[in-house]
């Protein structure tokens, strides 16, 4: 009976993302870094698929996924091609297939981040604007640890070397309206999967950042 209760959809999903993230982290630090970095699109797709599996399906949910993906891609295309919103930067090859110089996985990542941070925010707060602000703040927290690591992993690189205030302001500008829509639609995600995915992403980039700093890269 106990064995059956442990083999749930949620537990399997959580186990898989821990396996992939921890394996990737160990592989990048101690093994063939380039091979594991090339697997980033697979990891993102797996995380996205497991997130959707643990989300209650509805037409509104499907529309929100499309909105987050499209908005994220358009914002990034404007950023890469014209320097709007986030500053002047370009994407490397590690994130896979690109459309107008932006990897499709970036649109997927925008969906993932809106959903997991929105879920965490609504777990702690009740008022619409408070939830949207907290969700946006959580996204910016992740971006703070991602930005210094991204060029090393060949994810993206800013022309000035480091992301400026412009980038973080742009993230908030795009993320906040999407957070509002997320909470208006009232998406129901089952179990603690979003917490685990957020923690894993934060730990993944923070540990890599500490490792990079220790090596003086």
Task: Sum up the structure in keywords.
217 residues; mainly alpha; 9 helices
Structure description:
With about 220 residues, the chain is mainly alpha-helical. It has a domain at about 60-205. Helices cover about 70% and strands about 5% of the residues. The chain has helices spanning about 1-5, 10-30, 35-40, 40-55, 60-80, 105-125, 130-145, 165-185, 195-215; strands at about 90, 100, 100-105, 155-160. The strands form 2 sheets. The protein has a two-stranded antiparallel sheet with strand order 1-4. Strands 2-3 form a two-stranded antiparallel sheet. Helix 5 runs antiparallel to helix 8.
Order of helices and strands: HHHHHEEEHHEHH
The rough form would be described as globular
Radius of gyration, in Å, reads 17 Å
Average pLDDT works out at: 92
Q: What's the end-to-end separation, in Å?
A: 51 Å
Number of strands: 4
Given helix and strand content, the structural type is mainly alpha
* Low-pLDDT residue intervals, each spanning 5 or more residues: none
Q: Going across the major beta sheet, what is the strand order? A: 1-4
The biggest sheet amounts to:
2 strands, antiparallel
Beta-strand percentage? under 5%
* Total of DSSP H or I helical runs spanning 4+ residues: 9
Helical fraction equals: over 70%
């Amino acid at each position: 009976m106990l064995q059956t209760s442990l083999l749930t959809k949620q537990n399997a999903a959580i186990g898989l993302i821990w396996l992939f993230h921890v394996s990737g982290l160990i592989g990048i630090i101690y093994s063939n870094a380039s091979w594991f970095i090339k697997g980033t699109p697979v990891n993102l797709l797996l995380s996205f698929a497991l997130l959707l599996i643990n989300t209650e399906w509805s037409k509104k949910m499907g529309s929100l996924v499309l909105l987050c993906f499209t908005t994220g891609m358009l914002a990034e295309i404007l950023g890469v091609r014209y320097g709007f919103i986030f500053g002047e930067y370009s994407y490397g090859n590690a994130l896979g297939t690109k459309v107008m110089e932006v990897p499709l996985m970036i649109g997927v990542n925008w969906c993932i981040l809106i959903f997991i941070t929105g879920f965490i925010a609504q777990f702690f707060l009740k008022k619409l604007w408070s939830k949207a602000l907290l969700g946006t703040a959580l996204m910016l927290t992740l971006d703070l640890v991602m930005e210094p690591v991204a060029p090393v992993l060949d994810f993206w690189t800013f022309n000035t070397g480091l992301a400026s205030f412009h980038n973080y302001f742009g993230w908030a500008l795009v993320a906040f309206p999407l957070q509002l829509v997320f909470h208006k639609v009232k998406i129901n995600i089952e179990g603690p999967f979003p917490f685990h995915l957020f923690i894993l992403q934060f730990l993944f980039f923070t540990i890599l950042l500490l490792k990079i700093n220790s090596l003086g890269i």
